[in-house]
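Follow-up to my post from last week.
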Amino acid sequence: MGSNKEKNKMEENLACGCPGTAMKEVNNEKDVKNDTKQNSALRQWPVQLNLLPPQAPFFDDAHLLVSADCVPFANANFHSKLLSGKSLVIGCPKLDDIQGYEEKLTEIFKNNNIKSVTCAIMEVPCCGGLYAAVEQAIEKSGKKIPLIQEVISVNGDTQ
Amino acid sequence: MESKNHDYLEENIKDLIEKYPKLVPLLDKFDVGCVNCNLATCKLKDIIDIHNLSKKDETILITNIFKVIDPSGKIKIPKIERKKKSKAVKTSPPIQMLVDEHKLIKRVLVLIPFIVKKISFPKDKKLIEQIVDFIKLYADKFHHAKEEDILFKFFDQDLDILKVMYAEHEEGRGFIKEILIGVEKENKDKVCENLNNYLNLLKEHIKKEDEFLYPWLEKNLSIMQIGDMYGDFLEIEKSFNAKKYEDFVKKLEEKYLIKK
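User reply:
Got it. Predicted complex:
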């Protein structure tokens, strides 16, 4: 990490006790053995919302998954249960510009025929900001788009 | 009473009602209308899910049902596996579309008692034909087509609840045929009788769909299926002049509801 000054400043900013940053051990299996080859459901590149243009070809006539950055790490079945059949954008509502996300998502919804939106977030409160941004963006686009929320626990379970 | 290992959850609710008539008031208390249902061949385990009872109401109902079936209390009350509730936060756009179409149809149903009171031939022949046109094209071809050709097709066609819906759609079509025969022969009684039959059928049919069927079907569709269905519904909307029928209903309301 950087200098002590920077480290102290970061700790100050995070000293609110936010559950999103509270450290803990997660009691999952120590060794996850899986010899079966899993196929990737990813159909595009890039995936970061910040890097994607609203007119990307894989948005049109697509089912869209808007996923918080941490979801694929927590949820072992991300590709098969969440991503399969969908285009993808990812981001972090805590560390990135959420207003910018809302604006870009609004443009994506306005300029493309998005058939449905699945918003996958973690159970921590800060992730709710991503879902709120998606909801607002749909509203501002003026379109009615089916929307569903998937909340993933730190243990990886779908709530 | 069967042996204590008999799986009552797999029994058809109509058979249970026949064997144990005391179940009727129990079901009525929770607005579970199996007694009046045309088919009532849903299994006991499905009626709880279809009628979207809360966990608390489900426990009370099932406990009381088994008290009727087995007053001695020897049969262990089974646990019903509930499907996970949909995580969509509100009614999805395609289902909302169907609910909104119901609203327009209900506005016409409300007018039927006023229409049958004042109907006379040949003066009202054209009006009745226009009402039949609304029912045949808006209620049937436009609305029921979305249900039968798109929504219901996602599910097993042998589902009892769908068979009930198909049967009621057919019954409605039968009443419309009779209305047209009555109009042709200028038979006021025949027209009024079948308008009233249609009103009574559709009132209950729409209630069943809005309160039970649509939420249950929606719960059992994936978000991608809902999204694809919405796209198909929007395609149908493009080629149908729904506004013409909205304007027609407004004119009917002005004629029959506004005092001059």
